[in-house]
Amino acid sequence: MRDTVLRTERLDLVPLAVAHAEEMTGVLADPALHAFIGGAPLTAPELRARYERLAAGAPDPAVVWCNWVVRLRAEDRLAGTVQATVTDGGRVAEVAWVVGTDWQGRGIAREATRALVGLLADSGVRTVLAHVHPEHTASAAVARAAGLAPTEEREDGEIRWRLDLPQGLSDPDRQDTP
């Protein structure tokens, strides 16, 4: 699953590689992206080191890290990332997404996240989770569009969103390539 390239109507979700760090440094450079998640934009060397860790995979063999960069085909530019941390023998995945400020408001996160959830469903994941800050309405809209619903659970001040998947659910607009 982590090596799959996903294609949607407008996007290519490409497995994250260290080589993406340079371009992604610019995509993720706006401090406003950290308003709800904390921290600050990483420098190119810091992001390269992070991508090296992510590409190496989780140190726990029971955990699978799946990370993709989101390429907007019409602009031939990276616009963000989506990721899934798969646990519980492949049955549970925690997902996250980020789209650079210049590309927000265009449905990119929604399209990419729907494709990711479809791949997870097709791969046997039964529960998809996400954590969204209660004031982050744009991320809540992305989670809702991907089929997740808010729960009463809170973790680090964020709302846990959840989707229980029936077997065989997928996004009919997605085209996978190995």
Strand and helix layout:
Layout: E1 5-7, E2 11-15, H1 21-27, H2 44-56, E3 64-72, E4 77-87, E5 92-99, H3 108-122, E6 127-132, H4 137-145, E7 149-155, E8 158-164, E9 175-177
Parallel strand pairs: 5-6
Antiparallel strand pairs: 1-2, 1-9, 2-3, 3-4, 4-5, 6-8, 7-8
Query: How many structural domains does the protein architecture include?
Result: 1
The first-to-last residue Cα distance is 9 Å
The global form is globular
Q: Classify the oligomer.
A: single chain
CATH homologous superfamily grouping: Gcn5-related N-acetyltransferase (GNAT)
* Sheet of most strands: 9 strands, mixed
Placed side by side, the strands forming the largest sheet appear as 7-8-6-5-4-3-2-1-9
CATH-defined architecture? 3-Layer(aba) Sandwich
Helix content: 10-25%
What share of residues are in beta strands? 25-35%
Overall number of strands: 9
In the CATH scheme, the class would be Alpha Beta
Q: On the 0-100 scale, what is the average pLDDT?
A: 92
What is the structural class? alpha+beta
Radius of gyration: 15 Å
User: Which regions are unreliable across 5 or more consecutive residues at pLDDT < 50?
Assistant: 169-178
**CATH fold node name:** Aminopeptidase
